[in-house]
Each structure stands twice: as structure tokens, then as C-alpha cells.
User: What shape does this take?
Amino acid sequence: MLFLRTTTSLCAWTMTAGLALAEAPQSASVLEFADDNTLFVADSMGGAIHAYELTGNAAAPEKPAPYNLLDLDGILAEALGVEAGRLTYHDLAVHPVTRDAYVSLTAFVDGAEAAVVVTLTRDGMVTRLDLANLPSDTFTIQDPADAEVTFWRDIPAATFTVTDLDYANGELFVSGLSTGEFASTLRRVPYPFTDHTASTGIVIYHAAHNQNETRAPIRAMTVVDIDGAPTVVAAYTCTPLVAVPVSALEDGANITGKTIAELGYGNTPLEVLDFSMTDVAGNTQDVVLVINREMDADLITMDALTGAVAAEGITTPISGLGDTMGVATTPFPLSGVYQAAEQDAEFLVTLRRNMDTGNMDLVSYRKGVYLRLSEFVSEYNFPDYQYGENEFSQGTKLFQNMLKADEGFQDQMR
Assistant: This one.
């Protein structure tokens, strides 16, 4: 059964000092949480970022539990009263306390396109945020991308005014396009919003193109501490990975980021996530995961990333298309993932295009595994298959039973 609530917060809201009610944004693209009460929503078409105040009692789940919401198109279409084929997804974020999923999208509502942000619980309850009536504060982006410019005839450059958001150490980092030669811009915006912001042009060396680039924006990024120094780790289309020290991001400056990897040509990075994961032996490791549109995901250990940032950057071209260079990565098969976010200590949650049905799903992947066992039919699935008594076979059995339980297939456990 599906549920829909239209709400202005997690429960009820009260006006907060310094915040005012604002009109609904022209668009709702990138999402980011500052804390359990503040949700940033990028309005690329409107050249603004809205900070919405969510108030109420946010209860944490008793324990980590995965999302298994298949056919999200159908779930949202029924709940919102729209056509499933008229939904365009933009981003995904996770509430830091409730672990509810927040999804931004464009929906065709009452005969017109509307910017929509919904929350989803694991049991399929849909809540549409009433953005026009939430207390909010707004940061207006100066020199946004030129509204008259389009790519491939019909893609407005304005849709790239904000390409990613990351909140760290009391600041919102905003990547995207601006006007001018140094169109690739990285902004530091203190929150609560003030006038003391910094806007920095970024130039990078792109080994697959063998040129310095100033226009193409960062597509996905995260801010991590490397040897005690806050550092932006950013991925660009086609796919250089670049490190930029936060200390270099000064207002009005044009700086060069250090290219630390060339991950592969013909690809758009979708997410750069940093998190800790614990393996079956109880060992914890800090990693960065680059999720790609056209390639496997790239897992990078923090040790490898630290070494790459300390070394000389890449300044020479690849020898041929398909070659990679720089920091060592491990590929993982996150096929069809459109957006992803760290869900909790055990899982990542994803918007993923189902390869069989074509529908968008909202599903979790266990950290360190990055696959969903129910999408495979293999030797282990035959009813007469018997696990061996040796340690490897019994370990495989425990591992597969864990994944079956994650995906709601307890009846298939053996």
C-alpha cells in the first residue's frame, strides 16, 4: 500500500529566526544536508541555493536496514497523481538521523513541470515537501551560467549552474558553471549564509584530452581531510580525478587543481562518496568511491588517495584511448546507478535504473559488496546445489544468506 503526505517538515514546523517563507524554486536539482534540520536544494535554473529548515522529532531507526523499493516510477506516480513517464530524477540524499531518502525530481503536475522533493521510507511511504511554505534562507549565485547558451541544441547551460554540493566544516562547497573564460567555478559559501563567500575559477590538466581545461565543470566531488588538510576531491567528465586544497579557494582567484588520476574516457562521473566500511573480519577502512555513468565504479583507499595527493600530479597525456593512469582503483559493478548516497554504517542507497524493467528503483547496496544477489541466476540457485563443508563454501553460504536477507529473500536462505 502506498501513502502520500504533503508536509512542510518532518512533523510540524515553526518559524526560525532569520528564515522566511519563499516561493517554490524553479528547479530542484542537487540535494545536501547540513545537519538533521537543514536541507540544501540547488535551483540551477533560478541561480540559487535554498536552505530549508526541517523541524520536528527525528527518530533514528533501531538498526541499519536496506531499501528495496522496486519500480520507484510507479510508486511516485501513484502517490503524486502523475504519469510515471513524466518523472525526471535529479539527486538523492539521506537524512542524517532518520535515514529516510530524499529525492529531487521534475514531475509533470497539473499540466506543467514542477520542481518536487519527496522523502521515502523503507516501507514505501512518500512525503512531498511543501517547498513554498517551508522556512528557508536563500543564497543567490552571482554570474550563473549563461542562460542563452545550450549544448547539443537543447541542453541549457543554466542546468549546470550547480553540478554538486558538499557540506563540510560549516561551509557549503558549490561546483558548477559561471560566465567567462574560467567557467568552471568552485564556491565556498558559509552557512548560515553571509556575504563572505569565495568564488574560485579552476583549471585542470585533462590527460585524455591533452590540454588544460577551464570551462568544463566539476561533475561530482567530496571534501575530505588528507594529512590534516581539507581537500576537494573532484571528478570531471571523461574522467580526470583532481585534488584541490580548500586553503587555495580564495575569492576571485584562478587556480590549478592537481590531476591525480585519469579513470577512463567517454564517461560522466555521477557521485564521489567518502565513507568508512568494515569487512567480514571486522577491519575498518576509509575509502572514496567514484560512481560512473558509463563505467564500473572506482573504489580508492584513503591511503592510496593520500599518496597520490602528495606525489607529482599528472601532466602528460595517456598513450591511447581506454588507458588509465594515476591513483590505483578497484572496479565494482554498480551498473545502472544514477545517484547514490551513504545511507548508514552498513549500506549505500541508490537511485538505480533497472536493467530488466527499465524502471527506476530505490535500493541499497551493502558496503564492501556493491552487488544485489537477486539479480543473478547462478550455480548456487539450483535447488539441488549443496554447499561443501570446507571453510570457503561455508563462508560463501553465510555471505549469500546475508545478501538474501538484505533483499527480502529470507525464504531463499539455505
In short: The first strand starts at residue 3 and ends at 7. Residues 157 and 205 are 22 Å apart (CA to CA). Residues 147-332 form one domain. Confidence is low (pLDDT under 50) at residues 1-18.
